[in-house]
Amino acid sequence: MLAGTTPSSRDLKYPYMAKRLACMVISGAANADCLNILQPALLHQGTLIEMKEEFELLESTFRKAGFQEEITTFLTIDWYINVLARIRINAFRIELVASSYEDLLSSAAASVSCDSSVGNAVYMLPSFYNHDCDPNAHIVWLQNADAKLKALRDIEEGEELCICYIDASMDADARQKILADGFGFECRCLRCLSGD
């Protein structure tokens, strides 16, 4: 980030989530290592530099707030990077379902302007669903931000439940680039293998 620029709240969504987790750990509502079970994102050098700057700001904020060092011993640069690496790849964008025709119109307008999400959250079980560009299930967000898994077609017994991490309407090359850059893997689903 350039000095003198004001970051958008969209740029800070993951640091805000890390800050909230730190507060939960301090209050005893979560363990410092609660996200360690999740897959971390691959981080580029530029991202690591930004994370170090964000960490210094977070650490300074807790210090200025007068938090005792004994309750913030978990708060290290390694903890922060570890948490952000997991949040970045496992956070879900929450978009609530419309309850009325007016809500549906507002939701459609917000979707066009890319402002349709009401937030981001990490849900442990859904974080374990693998990706497929032709998924057999989809996560639906309810009004209270609870998640429900909805089958998109008949699912055979023993078949893996898969969701789509991205906009599946893009062409194969665009999907591959986004999945490689954002999630660190090359998709080998049937759609991608066929070039669809």
From TrEMBL:
Protein name: SET domain-containing protein
Record PROSITE patterns: SET
Signal peptide, first to last residue: none
Gene that specifies this protein: LOC542096
Occurrences of domain SET (ranges): 53-166
Organism: Zea mays (Maize)
